[in-house]
Amino acid sequence: MPVKTCNVALLGNKFMGRSHSNAWMKVAKFFDVPIEPVMHTVCARNEDEVAAFANRWGWQAHSTNWRRVVAEPDIGLVDVTTPNNMHPEHSIAALEAGKDVACEKPLADTLDHARQMRDAAARSLSRTFVWYNYRRCPAVALARQLCQQGKLGRIYQIRGCYLQDWAGPDTPLMWRFDKKVAGSGSLGDLCAHTIDTARFITGDEVSEVIGATMETVVKERVILEAGGGEISGRGAATSQKTGPSTVDDISLFVARMESGAVSTFEASRLSTGYRMSTGWKSTVKGAIRFILNG
Amino acid sequence: MPVKTCNVALLGNKFMGRSHSNAWMKVAKFFDVPIEPVMHTVCARNEDEVAAFANRWGWQAHSTNWRRVVAEPDIGLVDVTTPNNMHPEHSIAALEAGKDVACEKPLADTLDHARQMRDAAARSLSRTFVWYNYRRCPAVALARQLCQQGKLGRIYQIRGCYLQDWAGPDTPLMWRFDKKVAGSGSLGDLCAHTIDTARFITGDEVSEVIGATMETVVKERVILEAGGGEISGRGAATSQKTGPSTVDDISLFVARMESGAVSTFEASRLSTGYRMSTGWKSTVKGAIRFILNG
Amino acid sequence: MPVKTCNVALLGNKFMGRSHSNAWMKVAKFFDVPIEPVMHTVCARNEDEVAAFANRWGWQAHSTNWRRVVAEPDIGLVDVTTPNNMHPEHSIAALEAGKDVACEKPLADTLDHARQMRDAAARSLSRTFVWYNYRRCPAVALARQLCQQGKLGRIYQIRGCYLQDWAGPDTPLMWRFDKKVAGSGSLGDLCAHTIDTARFITGDEVSEVIGATMETVVKERVILEAGGGEISGRGAATSQKTGPSTVDDISLFVARMESGAVSTFEASRLSTGYRMSTGWKSTVKGAIRFILNG
Amino acid sequence: MPVKTCNVALLGNKFMGRSHSNAWMKVAKFFDVPIEPVMHTVCARNEDEVAAFANRWGWQAHSTNWRRVVAEPDIGLVDVTTPNNMHPEHSIAALEAGKDVACEKPLADTLDHARQMRDAAARSLSRTFVWYNYRRCPAVALARQLCQQGKLGRIYQIRGCYLQDWAGPDTPLMWRFDKKVAGSGSLGDLCAHTIDTARFITGDEVSEVIGATMETVVKERVILEAGGGEISGRGAATSQKTGPSTVDDISLFVARMESGAVSTFEASRLSTGYRMSTGWKSTVKGAIRFILNG
To answer: How far apart are CA D294 and CA D275, in angstroms?
Structure first.
């Protein structure tokens, strides 16, 4: 059976590079997809690391030259999992090379960069998407169906929260706490998912932010001496010295939606005892509650 | 054994009059109290109703003349459970007659009236309290103790919500939807409890409201023809005609506390599937989560 | 309005005496009952204690002579809350004096005594009931209605459990651990409720016990020196010496019902972290799950 | 880096064949394993199906001749995911060919066959294991550690249950309901897991079955006309005719453990509303509760 395929180039070989490799590897095994992804090339800065990564996850080639990779004629789709501040350059270059682009969230480090990416996508003929993966969570997909079919009636209120607890005062100063690299903290990392999920389920859009705050609660963190440790920084080697965290640990806002519904969004990396998100919608006929690792 | 007692006068014989009668009747049976309440007089507008109420609940006397009752020399404490817009007049008269006053929440129908009540209390020698009864819920009292003892460490965030679902579009236009009588809707009825509980547990105070909204979602409701029905209006006789609801069904705000913690407060009478409240505090060492009929 | 009344005599002034006093005091306040109970006489062994109890809870008279009380012409109903081994003598005497009898569970200390009580009730014209109070829990009453209306379809399986955790090795040798007084441990104290609830909800009866065990896990307990302490024995004064516990801490059985459904029943006083019961029924159309303080 | 590898042969290409393929494919990607599995050959009865399966999941070769495959010199481990009644022949042949064997549960269709497999394993030098995969669930592994470290103290009681709801009266007569093929129903399919988990966590063994029952509740089911449909038989083409189900839908037993602890085990395929298992252990110091998709 002749199968349509698409050669994928992955930029980045850290946590998300691993997650996406797993997804590319499995999608055509569990699902019958119209186009089968081919794990063509992975690209990252460290030659040894990227070679080992390619070998482990089954990428056919590896590279440390992202410009060459995104320009390569064989590549159909570029998957961007690099640090947030690299998303704009990587994505725009790929778009300009005529590739389809799948970019990790948050889309960009600044609003201005996000708009440049939007414009570059609009100018190109490529297809793009952002990795709001909760859309493919079966419960979320079902919630959207129920909502679109009118089974919930009028939506009065949306409550979205994404609470984690890994960023206490002992967590070291990883790149996630550096505004220049990460752009934001809980807002882009967590709340972005919740906002997207609310939009996806209801089809509604935020029309007005009534009030909002972003808090940097832990203002100084110990400096990392070397790599290692977990995603959360636990177990990493650290210095005695501290440096400033420049992103928000908690972000909260109250908003009005275009439909007239009101909403609260809460994201926190300091929510002791929580790992994941919960959302909720209130309506005439029904309500939806989604708790993942509540 | 000679026991110290206090004669209580109850104003109001509806839902809260019943709840308070139950409390006055039982408190000295389940607990050893320094002063035993005596159920002296209940006062309400309808002679027949108040006579039956007194007989049923064991009040020694009844009256339809609240002015005479609050002035009666034998009375030590006046318990105000009348509609919200009557709280100021009833409470201030009782204070001026030298009585201790226990007033239902919300304290008053307007901010101006609440300040008059505060000033009257300050001028008097009487003791006063507002019926924030969740303070006596064992879980809340324990939460306060844990917090006061420093067992939770620094409080980062307070999340308070009180969600009910009885005020859908089919609920008739009871006094609770009339701003002149009720003062407010979800804010005074529900959120007042949550704000008080947060203050009680943490000892912290709101210093700034960052953003807030109060929504009248169901703008017209069918007019009540007669009494009857449940607290929620279910089963009451209604007209075909509708009238405007003038209070908020949903109230939401983001606030900063004096300690620097941030907070969200949500109250709703339109939360399908919910009956009661949940709160939560995030800290270095621990977190508290309280769900009553969650 | 002339109201029909019934004079109640309460035997016993401990935990259940208190609970029942609360019930007799409130039932006609919260509900419109066809016959109003009158708290006529409370009877217990200690003169001072029973006098204080009567005063506190509002019993009109008190006595230490139960034989005289159950024979008193004015009394209409005798409420038996004495230790389990006293139930037969107290209940049968009351029945023979022509009184209605409400007896606490477990009905008796031995099967033989229970049968004597059943026969005495059958011989008399009195009405009787056992205090299986969960029947009046609104969720249980609703479950019964759903079941009786056929809304659950055929019942395949009943799972009943009642788990508590107060009887660890540190709990002293209270009367509840003395087979002569209590008759049994977890079986009569806890499992009796669950068996009754299953029967009440489904209308089904146990036809065969397939396998069962009753375990005395903690075989020796420290002897109580004096009264005091909580229901659970916590805080009571104890000796250094120990004595044998002669009742079951855990009881388990698998049974078949008359309908053909199979069932498991579990009761334990050693279930760390549990306070209360959960039950469950499996069916074609639906299932019921009831958790009280789960 | 020279890596030690092991060539795996998979027998069976249905639900478990798929699950195991996923596991063999991913284990060396997510974990650093001492021996890397190589997906060498998959073997099943239908030539076309097994070829497509091999292609989809990345098996290097495929075959329809299991005898040749288990004898192949290159193969190090044979993974048996065939129907339950084939486990004995397939496993024993593999053992006799000197291969390591990983066999799906339940081990065999009859007790006699299970003993033959045990004896064949004892006679060989091969390593064997049964796919009790819950042992690798992180929560279960942690529970075992806590238990082995004595952190739970003495175990009083074990409650194991595995409840599913897919086998209602509308589910067709799949091989899972045929005693000749499946050996048993809920007992081998579900309860086997729970018994193993209890043994794995506590290190304790069942010493006496006090009472047990296995119930075939749905005695006749519609006959399958063709393949298709889900694991649960939903969506499969069916005849109008019915045939007898010869396995248990519900299995229940009360047992005593070697340590003296008592236990209940419940498994059901008719538990409306349930998908998965819950277990629980009661102890002096602590308790463990594990609910997966509760």
So the answer is: 7
